Amino acid sequence: MRMDKNLRLISYILATIGLIDSAYLTWVKISHTEVFCGTSGECQTVSNSSYAEIAGIPIALLGMGAYLVLIILLYLEQQQGFWSANVPLIIFGITLAGTLYSAYLTYIEVAVLYAICPYCVLSAIVMVLLLIVAIIRLVRGSPEPETIHSLGG
Questions:
Q1: What is the 3-state secondary structure (H, E, C) of 46-58?
Q2: Which residues contact 83 (CB under 8 A, 6 or more apart)?
Q3: Which of 33, 69, 85, 102 could form a disulfide with 124 if both were Cys (CB 3.0 to 4.6 A apart)?
Q4: CA-CA distances (angstroms) from residue 24 to 88, 91, 123?
Q5: How far is it, in rounded angstroms, from Cα 35 to Cα 59?
Q6: Which residues are paired to 53 by β-bridges?
Q7: What pLDDT, on the 0 to 100 scale, is given for residue 42?
């Protein structure tokens, strides 16, 4: 599979931005400090809502874990064998799930809480961009139709 180093670098950068963003929100949630959000109280509304946790685990911590897993996978992808062959598809799956969940959380912010958290929006945008890059990488890495035909005999 052909690897595009620039797209992998973009993925590293985006995942690092997402990791820093979600690490900050995790720290705020765990330390019970107020989210820096300027004069708007909307960040605090979102952070203190029942939607900010699943079974007592902060959503931001789950996001932090997802971004960390993506960074590790991008590193492992440089290895031969299983990782180089499968990581692009695994990353696509993780970013698709992350994008769908981010869409749900954005809906909750807009339609239920009537409050927008810029940090959450940043994470959602990063996840969508990671999904787009993952799709591009999958498309660019797929074999040409002639190759598939010639393999089939």
A1: HHCCHHHEECCEE
A2: 73, 76, 77
A3: 102
A4: 27, 23, 11
A5: 15
A6: 58
A7: 84
The Cα 94–Cα 134 span in angstroms is: 10
- Count of C-beta atoms within a 10 Å radius of residue 2: 8
Tell me the per-residue pLDDT of 87-126, one tens digit each, with 9 for 90 and over: 999 999 999 999 999 999 999 999 999 999 999 999 999 9
pTM across the whole model: 0.86
Nearest to 93 by CA among 130, 143, 141, 62: 130
Of 32-36, 59-63, 81-85, 148-152, give the lowest mean pLDDT range: 148-152
Domains belonging to the chain, first-starting first, are: 9-152 (1.20.1440.130)
Please provide the size of the chain in residues.
Answer: 153
d(CA 79, CA 119): 33
Bridge partners of 58, per DSSP, are 53
